[in-house]
Amino acid sequence: MRFKPLQNEDNLSPNVVPMIDVLLVLIIFLVITFGFFKITTFDVTLPSGQGETQSKKENKAIRIEVDANHFKINAQEVSKTNLATALKQAAQGQKDPVIEIYADGQAPHQKIIDIMTAAKEAHIINIILMANDEKK
User: Fold this and answer.
1) Region of residue 4 (phi > 0: left; psi between -120 and 50: alpha; otherwise: beta)
2) Tens digits of per-residue pLDDT, 58-97?
3) pLDDT of residue 21
4) Are 115 and 99 in contact (CB under 8 A)?
5) Cβ distance 121 to 95 under 8 Å?
6) Domain spanning 62-131: which CATH class is it, in words?
7) Which of 7, 61, 128, 130 is deepest in the core (most CB within 10 A)?
8) Are strands 62-66 and 98-103 parallel, antiparallel or unpaired?
9) CA-to-CA distance for 104 and 5, rounded, in angstroms?
């Protein structure tokens, strides 16, 4: 029996040159074909408004000052019993009224709770607690 000698194992790599030629032909074909396409566009006429713009009404915060003896809503002294009705009157005409509570260090916590309870009765949910500035 005669066996053929084994081929040289060094020559097993694929030939890359024909692949590069095919890819270059494909790239040239794609570049030429995309040159024939025309991108179609259409004009859009946007409407223009002739009416007036509505100005946004800004809510003015309801300022409540609290010290050891008094409640003041927007610089008017109010008793504890009239607190809820005074808050309703101060918030009248505002969409989302905001309460700013300015309390000094001498104000008892119960007064803050009374204001929050009155705000709940007046259906006001935006409350900001502020600290009085001692430099005034």
Assistant:
1) beta
2) 668 899 998 888 889 988 899 888 898 999 888 888 888 8
3) 94
4) yes
5) no
6) alpha beta
7) 61
8) parallel
9) 105
